Amino acid sequence: MSSSEYELTTDYSDLETDAFVFQFHSVDETLGPDQRWSTWLDVERGSRGPEPRPSWVVTEQAAIDTELGVLKTGKEADVFLVERAVEAIGDNPAKSSLLAAKRYRTEEHRTFHRSTAYVEGRRTRNSRDSRAMHKKTAHGRSVAAGQWAYAEWDALNRLWKAGVPVPYPVQVDGTELLMEFIDDGEGGAAPRLAQVRPSRELLGVYFEQLRDGMRELARAGLAHGDLSPYNVLAQADRIVMIDLPQVIDIVGNPKGMDFLLRDCHNMATWFTNRGLEIDEQELFADLLTMVF
Predict the structure, then answer these.
(1) Which residues partner with 163 through β-bridges?
(2) Residues 27 and 91 both lie in one domain
(3) What phi, psi does 248 have (nearest 5°)?
(4) Are 161 and 32 in the same domain?
(5) Which of 180, 214, 244 is the last residue in one of the domains?
(6) 171 and 48 both lie in a single domain
């Protein structure tokens, strides 16, 4: 008889000695069309988020992932809202969290192809994978999509540990990256910086956070590489950088300085247009002191 046929939680004990007690908890194994069992334990330890993990991360084996809808349809990946939840079992309370599931497309399904300038200095470890990508076989296209997912995973891990304001990376599995869902405080997704009209005071708060984040990136020898008001989320008085698969090695990439300067230009222009005068060259020079 399968576990789904049991409906009661039952205590069994030796009534004379009370020496042996255990509990059996039923688990309904029926999943809906937009559900799956949590893949947390299916991935390698190195593909799970860095420790110490936030308390909201659901790691229980009995957890279920439920896809709630599309957050964003992009040129190279789509982002879905997923709830990972586990029911109360015995003394363990129910637990759930909302995640953003970013799923990279294979090359033939993309509407945007990143310039090779982004990946200069990177190498593919597996020679078979390199050959497959070069020949553009089905395996090679899948590997290429997975590489972008793992590139963003590595960047998020590194930057989260360094204190850069990025979503917490929960796990990566193939072409799917699960990360913290950044909400607006009312259940919806946080708006992009380009969509908000903050007060001058809040502009200053946002810029201080942005500069600190860019400094930590530069201290690690990195630039976002595609930083703009569209790749920064505004969550109340907090900003969060997103879309990091192309993170640039400032020194190792021949165009690293150009990418860093472009990041500075994009952000300085936005803040200046909103009424907070920011000199992109001063910002660029400040970040360079963190690199060298």
Answers:
(1) none
(2) yes
(3) -105, 135
(4) yes
(5) 180
(6) yes
Residues whose CB falls within 8 Å of the CB of residue 31, separated by 6 or more in sequence, listed in order: 37, 64
Judged by DSSP in three states, 252 sits in coil
The gap between the terminal CA atoms of the chain, to the nearest Å, is 66
Q: Are residues 213 and 167 in the same domain?
A: no
Q: Is the dihedral of CA 182, 186, 192, 193 positive or negative?
A: negative
What pLDDT is recorded for position 44? 96
- What tokens does 91 get? 């003394």
Q: What pLDDT is attached to residue 187?
A: 86
Burial of residue 124 (number of CB atoms within 10 Å: 0-12, 13-18, 19+) = middle
Do 221 and 145 lie in a common domain?
A: no
Domain of 109: which CATH number?
3.30.200.20
Q: Does residue 223 share a domain with residue 78?
A: no
Q: Looking up tokens 């201080």, which residue turns up?
A: 208
- pLDDT tens digits, one per residue of 145-185: 578 999 999 999 999 999 999 999 999 999 999 999 999 99
Instruction: Inform me whether the pLDDT recorded for 232 exceeds 50.
Output: yes
For residue 48, give the 3-state DSSP assignment.
strand
Q: Per the structure block, which two tokens stand in for 195?
A: 């969509």
DSSP type of residue 46: G
The 10s digit of each residue's pLDDT in 52-89 is 999 999 999 999 999 999 999 988 899 999 999 999 98
Do residues 94 and 219 share a domain? no
Whose CA is closest to 156, among 280, 59, 91, 240?
240
CB contact at 8 A, 225 and 253: no
Q: What percent of the chain shows pLDDT beyond 90?
A: 71
What does pLDDT average to over the chain?
Answer: 85
Residues 56 and 201 in one domain: no
The domain total for the chain is 2
Q: What is the pLDDT of residues 185-210, one digit of tens each?
A: 998 999 999 999 999 999 999 999 99
